[in-house]
Structures are given as structure tokens and as C-alpha cells.
User: Fold Sulfate permease from Pseudotabrizicola sediminis.
Amino acid sequence: MKRLSSLFPILGWAPAYTKADAQSDLVAAVIVTIMLVPQSLAYAMLAGLPPQVGLYASILPLIAYAIFGTSRALAVGPVAVVSLMTAAAVGQVAAPGSAEYLTAAITLAFLSGIVLVAMSVLRLGFLANFLSHPVISGFITASGLLIAISQLQHILGIRVEGDSLLRILGGIYAKLDGLNPFTLAIGMTATAFLFWTRKQLKPLLLARGLPARAADLIAKSGPVAAIVLSILAVVGFGLVDKGVRIVGDIPGHLPPFAVPSFDLGLWQELLLPAVLISLVGFVESVSVAQTLAAKRRQRIVPNQELTALGASNIASALSGGYPVTGGFARSVVNFDAGAETPLAGAFTAAGILAATVFLTPLFQFLPQAVLAATIIVAVLSLVDIAAIRRTWAYSKADFAAMAVTILTVLLVGVEAGITAGVSLSLALFLWRTSRPHIAIVGQVPGTEHFRNIDRHDVITDPRILSIRVDESLYFANARALEDAIYDHIADQPLLRNVVLMCPAVNAIDASALESLEAIAHRLGSAGIGFHLSEVKGPVTDALMRSDFMDHFKGRIFLSQYEAFTTLTAAAPNGTMTPTGSGMRVETA
Amino acid sequence: MKRLSSLFPILGWAPAYTKADAQSDLVAAVIVTIMLVPQSLAYAMLAGLPPQVGLYASILPLIAYAIFGTSRALAVGPVAVVSLMTAAAVGQVAAPGSAEYLTAAITLAFLSGIVLVAMSVLRLGFLANFLSHPVISGFITASGLLIAISQLQHILGIRVEGDSLLRILGGIYAKLDGLNPFTLAIGMTATAFLFWTRKQLKPLLLARGLPARAADLIAKSGPVAAIVLSILAVVGFGLVDKGVRIVGDIPGHLPPFAVPSFDLGLWQELLLPAVLISLVGFVESVSVAQTLAAKRRQRIVPNQELTALGASNIASALSGGYPVTGGFARSVVNFDAGAETPLAGAFTAAGILAATVFLTPLFQFLPQAVLAATIIVAVLSLVDIAAIRRTWAYSKADFAAMAVTILTVLLVGVEAGITAGVSLSLALFLWRTSRPHIAIVGQVPGTEHFRNIDRHDVITDPRILSIRVDESLYFANARALEDAIYDHIADQPLLRNVVLMCPAVNAIDASALESLEAIAHRLGSAGIGFHLSEVKGPVTDALMRSDFMDHFKGRIFLSQYEAFTTLTAAAPNGTMTPTGSGMRVETA
Assistant:
């Protein structure tokens, strides 16, 4: 039973479901439905798909998440970044608007579902940890910019091809004389109106004395108002004849039962995009879910979230939808509107189903420019310039990974961008660990502590070299340690013992072990003892298992203090001098 | 002048060259020449090239190394592993025996030379550090086995295609009925004779009272004896008519001036093999050079070695040769024979040039089976089974990288093998650092030291959680730290302060910084203080640069002891209990 309810979290909360829960969930569902319908149409357009596909992707996936998900407030469905990634991936295997394009999008959702479930079964969720914050943040910022710019064409009433910044801008520039002034007027007005409702309407309403909740709801219904007004304008002024592009006829029926393609060649082409979409979707979804769960002191189970997102994507594919994930905006609305359980998602699904069947004729005259405005206003909030500045100030390596991600997304594409960012951040980590910080240390007077002689006033002894390496020893840095020790023992005629202080050495691999043997051998032939100190438990255990100890003639001291006092006492003709009056006290 | 002599090390030693040096160098050159001539023919056969190509690769490259190299004893030329890699790379773009095959081999040498020089200019020699010992050791062992097995066909007198273990063995099995008994007899006899001279002749001669040096020289001339005797047998018994394959006519002239192909498509196909050959050749060459330099307390300059090996390969390409590197066997012979300067290499080049022009007619009747026997006996000494056992005992991760390298080399190929080994060793390193060792620590009674409560009898306090993370904090392990801290603070009603002890934290990247902020925020909202201790200098500097300190309400203690005593003194209603009588003293 416990295992069953960990696979089906619904079994955990459904038996305790109350009438009050139902009331909260229903209210939340109505609000989210109103918000989701135009958003679903818009994101489908962004993905290059017919508008109804966005609606299909907002029905069954929500039911699947309600059954398998561990977050009480997460709302899954089409989101901006994943829609952009879908357009990029599918655009490489089929022409936009073709039947193959739709099939490829459905197949991508299916594959992405399989990848997510496989990651759950194989416990590969940790792979998402390799997407660093700067890479994710840069990726989302750049995607937001790219999406906003790609929507400009709909505001201008022209149509361009391409999925990189330069191509889109070049295409727009080349076709600028085909600009439709009516479309432009509608698009600019809608964009300005949406920005205004988003940023200034709520404070205004609050200032007029409206209750906070009502002000919030009115402000959030901005997109609905824009849609209604623009439809009225199109119909009233006969703008279709003036060249304003509209959404057009949307088939008003239940989501179809769809079958993904099982063409292995197509699977091969879509596998990498599916993996990237899965990882990005998982990271976005889990971070939203965790933020919301923490607010109510609930917990989510990341591994189960993989299963839930996988099931949602498979459900999306089987009902004619495209890849989905937990969205930030909709989840926050769901949470704020008071959703208590995942059943709110199921109610939302019912709402969108009803809208799909009964309301789609109303959207026929909706101008594409208004959908584009909705997208632009939504995605520009993803652009986080402050994060770029903060990262630059803190770490140039992190900034480099972020900058490469942003530039590659904008200039090459989304998949190349995330791949380049992850590769560079891993390479920079390896590069850093391959050049460890190595310090000569001395005793802080009056304590048992040893610190860098370049940073502190410390006691040293010319007969003893205390050297601390601040990194695990492994193949990439083993030579650097050898070189550093050989450099430091040169021109030290009084030197009798070298102590390698290892408090920061968390592991020693086979390559580094050979280097330690080489160092011990070389120092030994020069008449210098080689010892270790402050070796961690697991590292000592490993050394004991090897044949290193058979040849090792030095000692392993529990502390550097013990090493220093023992070796000072044992060595002949040397003196130890305190700070300030000393033979070899160095201060930075 | 100093910069000039660092680019041309020859300027460092040539002015001080003495008559005694010349004598030593000449003697060494004669010995190495005798050894190199059959070896060059054999390795050319291994690379699938005409025998004279091996000789060409042993002339100009030695001159180039004498000018640019920093090792006094390194002997460059064709070596077994690089010959195998050449065969694998070139075999993918041209048919063995064709003119394109030879051009591709020459182009590979040229490309490899350019890669090495570029690595030198860009100071990329550190890339070789990413080839771990277990991967190199596994690669050489597997290559040795693969080479030995690939030579079986020549011993049996049949011819098979393929460059993986199963294909070669399958090919031999399929053609076993075409076995030539005369070839087999010659091959088996030669192999047995060579093993005997290598292993048992020297002790025997020493026991008979010969001086050590003479015994060594006689034992090392085994291959020459085998060659002379087998040529006599072939000619005397008319074995060519019986189907024994011979080396055949070798054109006896100066090395030609050759021009590599500048076909960009070919360059693209050969680039990855050229990079791998360069890295493997560099690692082998530098490790041989360093071993020999240490024996005479000389130093080599790894970055200059890249230039020297690059120049050698370009010289090889321009004189009709194929990729070369510093060989272990020939360098040791050169060193033992008393070579004092790289001029020994130039003398050797002159010797091989003379052999190429005047002696090649003698080799016409040399049976290929004897060359194969020379190769088999040479490469089986590369197979190091003890290293496999040692690595297994020390570290399962290192063993996994080694095993994957060996199996992939044998079953797929040399390039795939080294790529798989390097990838796996990097992945395992990342995997390990992404799951850091995290310990709860307490005070070792009577000292200022804090150790793992699971390993030592230590003093703790229920109001203070001292937690030590044994890894740098970066994107891949930031979540693991968060999870560990949240897990440890659960069910600790008395807890007032958490101290994160950071002696092993060598860096904190932007992702981990966000995690620390999240931890501080979450603990703060639960009324628990969050502090750091023993933060390294560079890490503190980085924290100070960020806006972390603006929000951070905790303290950064110099030592865990200071943190523990300060927080114990400050906190109300708590007691501190020594080992054995305590409230929360845990012992493993």
C-alpha cells in the first residue's frame, strides 16, 4: 500500500478530500482555465502548431499529473521555453504547417515522456543537477528574448523563417515593406495594454480602494479583456479584409486519439531534443513545485515528479498534444487562487475541455497579433538582467558559462545553447580542479592551527615544509602536485621533512596514488622524509587497501600540529621561532 | 638569446659538445641503428604500410627532435601503439595497399604534427593530464594484446581483415585451412627464439662469466640474429616457392620529398585520430623522457616536447613517413648505450639512412613471419596484468575506467577505447563530486579538533549541529548539501544553530551560493542560526565580493572550535557533555 501510494500520490490525498477542498479547487480551476485558454493558443502558435494543439496539451496531461504528481499546486501544460524548443527541434525534421510537423511534435512529446519515465526508473534525476543556475538562468533569459523577437513578425503582420536572432531580424528587415499597419496598430495597442494591466493596473485599483484579491483578479484578466476587445474590433471594422491575420477556424471537438510515429529514424533525430526538453522541463517544473511546496511546508518527491511529468507528456502525445511541463506563471496563479490538491488541475482540464468543445468558434476572429502580444508580455518577465550582473560580480567562470549559453541560444539555437553552456561549465569545473590551490602553511601562534604563510603571521621551521593542497587528488591534478612539491623543495638546504596536509583531500585516485609514490621515492633519494597529515577517514581506508603503505616510509599524522611538534622535536640542530622575531616567518 | 635557446634547446648543449660526448653518442647510435632497422620494417607492416616507410619515419624525425627536443636520451620513431592507431585511422579512409592509404598516413603525420605544435603554442599540454593512469595503462595493455593477435595471421601465413579482436579471431578461424606450414614453422621458431633471447639468454651468458654489458648487447641482438638466420633459410631452402611471404623488393634510395594531402574532407576525417595520436604519443614520450631525465638529474620541458614531437611528425610527413613519437624500448636502449646528447639521434638517423640506401636489398627475402614475431615479443611486454589487479584492489571507479578502455579497445577499436576511457573517468569524477561526503562532527575531547561522530568518540551539543562537507560546492552538488542539511535538522527540537564547517570547500560557485542563501533563509524562518567555519581565504574573498554577505545574518568563524565555544556560551539552557556520559555522543 505504501509503495502503491508513492507511485500514485493521488491515493495519499484523495481519501481525505473534503467539501472545502473541492470548493477551493473549483475556484482555482475557473481562474486558471480563463488564463490558460488564450495562453494555450498562443504557445501553440509559438511552437508552429495549429491553435487547438495547445488546448489538447492542456487537458489530459493535467489529469495524468493529478494522478502521479507530488506537488499540490503545480499546473502542467504548454510553456514558453518548451514551446520554443519544440519549434526548434521539429522544424529540423519537417516543414511548419505540414502533417509531418504535427506528427513530429506529437512524437517528440511521446519520446520526452519515455525519457522522463526512464530517468525516474533509473533514478537519473540527478542529471538535472548538472544544469547549473547560471546556465539555466542564461538559457531562460536568452529564450525569453528570442521568443519575444520571434513574435515581432506577428505584431508587424509579416512572416519570416528561421530560429536564430540574426535570421529573424534579417527576415523582418527584408520584409519590412510588407508591414500591415492595421496589424501593427492592434499588436502595439495590445502589447501596451497588457504591460499596463500587468504593471500598473493593480496598484491603481488598490489605490481606488478595491480589496487586494479583487484587484489581483482584475489585473490578471487583462489578456481576456484584450482578446474580447480585439475580436470585437476585427469583426466590427472588417479587419480581415484589411489583411489582419486571425486564428481562423478551430475544430471544436474532443481531443483526438493520436498515435506517435514509430519511425526509428525520426526517433533518432528527436532523441537529443527530447532529452534536453525533458531536463529543462524537469528543472523548471521542480523548482516551481519546490518553491510552492515550501510555502505550505509540504514536500515534493523529485523522482516521482519525473514519473508524473513523463505520464503527462505521454498523455499529451496520445491526445494530439505536444511537450508539456510544469509552468511557473500558471502554477503561481493556481496556488494564489487557492488550489488545495491536484484535483484543481483535473477541474481545470474539464474547463479547458468545455472551452475546446464549445468556445472555439469565438476565437476564430482573434488576431494573431494579440496572441503574440500575450506571449511577448509573458516572456519578457523571464529576462533577468540583474542575474547576469550578479553572476559577473561573483564568478567569472560562472559568468562565462552564462554568457556562452545566452549568446549560443541567440545566435545558433536553443539546443546548441544549452549544450554549450553545460559543456563549458563542466569543462571549467574540470579545469579548476586540475589546477588546485596549493599553499605553504605555518602554525598560528598559540593555537594548533596552520594557515597559509602568505595570508597569516605564522610560525615555520626551515627543516619542515608544510604544504597543503586544497583539492581532491585525481588524474587531472596529480602532476600539478608533483611539480609544486619539486619546486618548493629546491634551494632548501636545511629541509629534512615534507608534510602534505590533506584536510581538503576528499579522495585520492589511482593516478594520484602513483604520483604520491613518485614523490615519496624522489624525496627519499634526496634524504628528505615525506609524511601526510589530517588525512580523512575514507581516504585513509583507501590507502590502507592499496599497497601504498607497503613502500611508504613516512608517517600519517592525525593533525598538522602533531606532525609539526613531532618532527621539530625529532630533528637535530633546528630552532623554532615565533612570529616577528623569526627565521622564516612570511607575511602577506 | 635565452628565448632562442628555449625554442632550440640544441643551442644550449651544442656549444659545450666534447669529443667524449661524440664518442658516447656514436656508440649509442650504432647500437640503436641495429635495433631500429628491423623494428622500423616491422612497425610499418603493422601500420599496413610498405616497409621502407618505417625507415623513412626513422631518419628526418630524429634530426628534428635533436634540434627541438629537451630530453637528452629520447629516441623518436615509429612505435607499436601509434602504428596500430595509424592503421585504424587510415584504414577508415582508404584501402590498405593503395596509394591513397600511403597519402592518408603521410597526411595523418602532418596533421598530428600541426596539432602538437598548436598544443604547444596554446599551452594545451595540460590536456594530457586528463588521460588518467588507469586509462593509459589499460589502453597500452589492450593495444599490446590487439597487436599481438593481429600479427598471428603473419605467423600462420594467412591474411585477414578487420581491426577488432572478434573480427581478427573470426577471420583467422575462417581461413585456418589456408594455413602455410612453412610460414608457421618459421614464425613459431622465431617467436620462441626471440622470447628466449629476451628472457633467458642474458642470465645464461652472465652465468658463463661474460661481462654484463657484453651479455646485454648479445641478448639485445636477438632480432638481428633471427633476421639473418631466417633470410638464409628462405634463400637456402627456396621457401618463397613454398608460399612463405617475404618482405619483397624495398626501393633503396633516399627518403622522398612527400607532400601531404590538403583535401579538407580528408583533414576532417583524420582530425580526431590525429588529436588522439598526438595525446597518446605525447603522454608516452613525456613519461619515458621524464623517467630517463630523472636518472641523470636532468629536466625536460613538457611544453617544448610538444614542439619537438610536432616538428618530428611534420619532418616525418615531408619525407614520406608516418606518425612517430618517443618510443620506450629504443629510448632505454639509447640511454643504456650511453647517449649523452640528442646528437646520438642524429647519428642514428645517418645510420638508418645508410641502411635504407645500401642494405635494403638484403631484406628482400626476410619472411614477414619473422617481423611479426619481433612485434609480438615486443608488444607482449606492454601487457601489464599486475596493474589491472592493483587498480581493482585500490579503486573500483579507476578499475571501471580501465576495464572499459580495455574492452572497448579490444572489441571496438583503439580510438573508441581511449575516448570511452577518458569519458568514463571524467564522468565518474563528476559523479563522485556530485555526491559529496557529508559528516556530522564533534569535538575530540581535550583538543581543538572536530571529527566525524560516526568514527570518533567526540563531544557534541544538542543545540548545535556541526556539519562538514568534504567537497567544493558547485552546481552538481549544491542540492545534495541542501537535502542533507534539511534531513539533519528534522526532529531536533533543541537545535538553535547550524555550523557548516568548510575546510574542504575549495570553491563555491554561483549555484552553490544560491543554495547557501536558500539554506540560510529556510533555517532562519525556523528560528535556527546558520554559520560557516574554517572557510578558506580564497573562498572568503569570493563571498565578500558577492551580495551574499548583505543578507547573511550568521557568523563566519575562523575555526570550528571557536564556533562551538562561542555558540555554546551564547545559547541558553544547554549542557555540554563529554564522551561516554553524554546526551548525544555517537560512536561507530
About this structure: Residues 573-588 of chain B have pLDDT under 50 and may be disordered. Chain B has 25 helices and eight strands. Chain B touches chain A through 61 residues (CB under 8 Å). The radius of gyration of chain B is 31 Å.
